[in-house]
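If your schedule permits, I should be very grateful for your opinion on a structural question. I have a record of one protein: its chain in single-letter code and its fold written as discrete structure tokens. Kindly check, if you would, that the fold set down in the tokens agrees with what the sequence suggests. I remain grateful for any guidance, and I place the record below:

***
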Amino acid sequence: RPFAAAQLEAPVAKATFGALDFVDVLGPRPERREAFPPELLAETTDAELQDIVESASHALETPIALVSLVLDQVQWFKAHYGLPPDLAAARATRRDVSFCQFVVRDDAPFEVNDAHTDDRIPQHLPKEYDVRSYLGIPIHVDETVVGSLCVLDVKPRSFSSEERARLQRLA
């Protein structure tokens, strides 16, 4: 059954007072719905994508890797490796806490070296799960960016040009 059916109409989240825990950089984009064919949103395990996220995690030596589809109000994990149990069970987060929304907005790789000191990103995931670094590469369907292949780490780090190239090849 398609995951996004009920999720596409969810209300837009607001930022909290103080540090921005929630940031929505995409805004409403109803035209993006057409980029997600039903088979892409099927809640089935995709063995090929699962192999890719595991390869990404090992190749870049990060504890977490995802194929994240960025929908109207959620990011859905089509494949994942190394997620905390509650996120693995949910297979999604709100879009306004995601780092992947920046990949979709810019249709370009996005890197965070230390989320605790990076003003660009929402602070919910760094606070809740101690996510510190991130590298995401766009994934396209018919020339529309639908999400990212990304790796996350719980320690601050930079990614080398070789690591960025490896993740790009996997994407």
Q: What stands out?
A: Confidence is low (pLDDT under 50) at residues 1-18. The first strand starts at residue 64 and ends at 70. Strands lie at 64-70, 74-81, 92-94, 110-112, 133-141, 144-153.
